[in-house]
Specification:
The chain is mainly alpha-helical. Helix 3 packs across helix 11 and helix 12 packs parallel to helix 14.
């Protein structure tokens, strides 16, 4: 084992197809070894929203966060793996651009999110009205893939902004990271929620069981964040999250209270319902407004980020809700 490799961090997940098996197999060895990585042709033939592609892409991105137990950190910048990642990203991004509304007006894109439908059919509406405790446990296990590193993907965009947009984005991130208090970090609050629900709080613990649709949502943030050319799309994605978070969190707090999930479980969403109401306004007015004041040509990218987020959240809901209504698990393997 390389002296820089430490036996810490999440374990490598199990592959879900040729692409992800190939990446897992390579990461178990040394960078530059003769273990072949999947080909461009394999990436081009993959389902752009499928489990295999998104686990492979998640593996590539996670090297820029905490890495994996026993995996050489030099893999983060291995040229062959970066080339494969680019192939996977191109396949995913091309599909998103095809399947997402082609809007150039950010206000129009955000306006759709500001209206609460009277007969909402979202996942959070279902959990508020009909969800049982096992549904909430599954939902938390899925979301842990994101919430245990909640603010990290958005932090990539801060060096790519300036002026009003940078200052406001830093303010939002400061709150997400606990305003200087580790115990108030939103990732820590989510871990406390998981404890109330009897779930394992280890980072990356539920990657193996999370649906590909959940991995796609997390990968979207990482892809937008790791490419300066997609900074506008990440701002749009952040705006979509913050604008919808407060009403969604109110519904989920009510679901936690109704099912007696626990004090910490309810607190996580109650905290978001309060903080994200102001975050939504700050992101819309200062982050989006400041970015477009400086770089008005990015408005189409910001709108794309808003709408692409909606496409992937809808795909996740379409995965979970039919299964739950039939009394089945929405996870790859039930808890």
């Amino acid at each position: 084992m390389n002296a820089d490799v430490r036996p810490t961090g999440p374990a490598l997940p199990t592959g879900r197809g040729d692409l992800s098996y190939g990446v897992v197999r390579a990461l178990r060895g040394r960078p530059g070894s003769r273990t072949p990585l999947p080909s461009t042709a394999a990436a081009d033939a993959a389902d752009p929203y499928g489990d295999d592609l998104h686990l492979a892409l998640y593996l590539c991105y996670e090297l820029h966060y905490r890495g994996f137990c026993g995996v050489d950190p030099a893999w983060e910048w291995d040229p062959a793996l970066l080339a494969l990642r680019a192939d996977l990203e191109r396949r995913f991004l091309d599909a998103l651009r095809t399947d997402t509304k082609r809007r150039t007006d950010v206000d129009e894109a955000l306006a759709d999110l500001l209206v609460e439908p009277p007969d909402g059919t979202s996942t959070s509406h279902y959990l508020k009205d009909e969800g049982e405790l096992w549904h909430l446990r599954e939902y938390a296990a899925q979301r842990s893939v994101y919430h245990l590193k909640e603010a990290d993907p958005h932090a990539w965009v801060i060096p790519r902004l300036r002026g009003r947009a940078k200052a406001a984005m830093a303010a939002v991130e400061f709150d997400e990271f606990g305003a200087g208090r580790a115990d108030r970090m939103h990732s820590r609050l989510f871990a406390a929620l998981m404890t109330d629900l009897g779930l394992d709080t280890a980072y990356g613990r539920y990657v193996d069981t999370a649906a590909g649709e959940m991995l796609a949502n997390v990968n979207l943030m990482s892809m937008f964040g790791l490419h300066r050319a997609l900074r506008g799309a990440l701002v749009g994605q952040c705006a979509a999250v913050e604008v919808t978070s407060s009403p969604t969190s109110r519904r989920l707090a009510e679901a936690m209270r109704r099912t007696e999930a626990g004090e910490a479980a309810e607190r996580f969403y109650a905290t978001h319902a309060a903080s994200d109401a102001s975050h939504g306004q700050l992101v819309r007015q200062e982050v989006v407004g400041g970015l477009l004041e400086d770089e008005p040509w990015l408005e189409g990218d910001v709108a794309f980020g808003v709408d692409a987020t909606g496409v992937l959240e809808a795909r996740l809901a379409d995965k979970l809700l039919p299964a739950w209504r039939d009394g089945l698990s929405g996870l790859r393997t039930p808890l």
